[in-house]
Amino acid sequence: MAVSAADDAPRRSLRLGFAGTPGFAVAALDALTQSQHPVVGVFTKADRAAGRGQKLQGSPVKARALELGLTVHQPATFKDPAACAELEDLRLDALIVVAYGLILPERALNAPRLGCFNIHASLLPRWRGAAPIQRAILAGDRSSGVSIMRMEKTLDTGPVLAARTVEIGPLDTSQTLHDRLALLGGELVRETMDELAAGRAIETPQPAHGVTYAQKISKAEAIIDWREDADQIARKVRAFTPTPIAETRWNGEQLRIWEAHALPKSASAGAGDAAAPGTVLSASAGGIEVRCGRGIFCIDRLQQAGRKAVTAAEFIRAHRLAGAIFA
Fold first, then answer.
1. Residues 234 and 292 sit within 8 Å (Cβ to Cβ)
2. pLDDT in tens, 199-252
3. Which is it for the CA torsion 141, 145, 149, 154, positive or negative?
4. Is residue 252 part of a domain?
5. Which domain does 101 fall in, by range?
6. Which among 194, 214, 234 is the end of a domain?
7. Nearest-CA neighbor of 25 among 79, 98, 83?
8. Do 159 and 25 fall within a single domain?
9. Is the C or the N end of the chain the one with fewer CB within 10 Å?
10. Are residues 225 and 76 in the same domain?
11. Residues 176 and 280 in one domain
12. What is the pLDDT of residue 10?
């Protein structure tokens, strides 16, 4: 389906709503409020208890929306007809949805005149689903990007109005890639709304081939299996930074790995071949080298439970690791 503002008379501006919750969505909200299109309402998830005192805390999107003087709506669910009616009462041209966290039923999707549009942190149809950034790094993808997609009842299947690519660097973590994609998504959705308002937006159906799903990350996935390839373990560390953080165990104690890298194949060939996976081959200021199922993995920064993260050099000043076995 190719619906644009040209279906009515082309407009210079669109009356927009915004739905988002985490920090990733803030850049898009900022971009839209700096556009020619007025944002007349912001939807975000309900406040939740956080911290030691379990005090109610609003989302990053709520905090930014209030700073901008925007009206904030926090329905618990859109299964409630009152929430859909609240959305309909805004008489929106379009609703921009970014990592909102609530499912929009058909009535909500049909409430804006031109529909609902999502900023998705992948190049669709690759990595539909909840964790596209982490899954792209885990899989060793060399590029990622953002897609502006029309929302449908099914997950991340709608036609794409715009997409832009970024390279995934060898040092990129989920945090660094997240930050770049958040800014890119804001720029791209602003341009897309301009095109929609001018009647120039083109919606391209997603191809049937190349579909992959980015399942939600579980804490169990963060546990390192030293039988894996060193390159795969290094990708896991980068994908799970800043959360949930890759981890191993030493003497029954949790060790979280914040920064690490796989040694080049030429440097690790033959080194410690007789050692079992998880064996610490050497520990120096240059890093803690661990035998993997294939290759050698070097830890640069790590953290004991209940303590701050430190460099390998700082850690080995207090602990002897050579010959130790991580499990």
1. no
2. 999 999 999 999 999 999 999 999 999 999 999 999 999 999 999 999 999 999
3. positive
4. yes
5. 5-214
6. 214
7. 98
8. yes
9. N
10. no
11. no
12. 52
Residue written as token pair 């909102």 = 100
Question: pLDDT tens for residues 261-313?
Answer: 999 975 555 556 779 999 999 999 999 999 999 999 999 999 999 999 999 99
pLDDT digits (tens, 9 = 90+) for 36-69: 999 999 999 999 987 777 788 999 999 999 999 9
- Look at the pTM and tell me if it is higher than 0.85: yes
Looking at residue 118, which CATH number applies to its domain? 3.40.50.170
With tokens 């929430």, the residue in question is: 83
CATH for 280: 3.10.25.10
Assigned token pair, 83: 């929430």
Pair of tokens at residue 257: 């790995």
Q: Are residues 94 and 199 in the same domain?
A: yes
